[in-house]
Design goal:
This is DivIVA domain-containing protein. This protein is an all-alpha fold and 243 residues long. The model has no long low-confidence stretch (mean pLDDT 79). Helices cover 91% and strands 2% of the residues. The longest helix is centred in the N-terminal third of the chain and has 100 residues.
């Protein structure tokens, strides 16, 4: 670009210092020098055009890099979200399995205690019958009352144990909310990745646009200067021909 401006400055100097044609605004310029300078301008311009293409290629590379980075960020966010969901599901599954096992163990223990109480009640009743017929009615009645009381207590204990086990199971099952929270978190990570990609793309476009705008202004000034030089050259050639 320096050579272009230098050649144009020399053209301006030649035109300014050229010998004027009497009674006209025309002047006589050295055709060979002017043509050499115009050749220099013509030879320098393709290099500037190549520079402009380099800027465009650099813009495409920046956009490709930004898109690749955005894709990697989204893939990493999706992988992290999948990992969180899998961990949450595994934790919920283990918790539910533990709650079921605990409930079954509690029910089994309660049933065993109830059966043991019933067996002892039957034994007491049989011993009471064997003690004597004279006390048969009272002992049987007392044994039945004791049996009903013990059975009621066993059933109540069993029901309480079952209710506690079911309540614990329901509480543990509610931890499935962890899975839903993991889905929400993964959605937030993916949205953040998209926003970062959009921001990077916007900054890249702004940078490239500013570079192209500067180059466009420089080329516009150069073309105007070349146009004026050619106009002056054509005017000078016609004046010399008339002489």
């Amino acid at each position: 670009m320096y050579r272009v401006f230098e050649a144009l400055d020399q053209l301006v100097t030649i035109v300014e210092e050229a010998r004027g044609v009497p009674l006209s605004a025309s002047c006589v310029v050295p055709r060979g020098d002017v043509l050499d300078l115009l050749d220099d301008v013509r030879d320098a311009l393709p290099g500037e055009v190549d520079d402009a293409q380099d800027v465009l290629d650099h813009r495409d590379k920046l956009i490709a890099d930004a898109e690749e980075s955005a894709a990697k960020t989204i893939a990493d966010a999706q992988a992290e979200a999948d990992r969180l969901v899998a961990a949450a599901r595994a934790q919920a599954s283990n918790t539910v399995a533990g709650a079921n096992a605990e409930a079954e163990r509690t029910v089994g223990e309660s049933t065993a205690r109830a059966e043991s109480i019933l067996q002892r009640a039957h034994a007491d009743a049989e011993r009471a019958v064997q003690a004597g017929r004279e006390q048969h009615d009272s002992l049987v009645e007392r044994g039945q009352r004791e049996q009903e009381r013990l059975v009621g207590a066993g059933e109540a204990a069993q029901e309480r144990s079952i209710a506690d086990g079911r309540a614990e199971q329901a509480r543990l099952v509610s931890e499935h909310e962890v899975v839903r929270a993991a889905h929400v978190q993964s959605a937030e990570i993916i949205d953040s990745a998209h926003a970062e990609a959009d921001r990077s793309r916007s900054e890249c476009d702004g940078y490239v646009d500013n570079q192209l705008a500067g180059l466009e202004e420089t080329l516009t000034k150069t073309l105007r200067t070349v146009s004026r030089g050619r106009t002056s050259l054509r005017s000078g050639s016609r004046a010399e021909f008339r002489d």
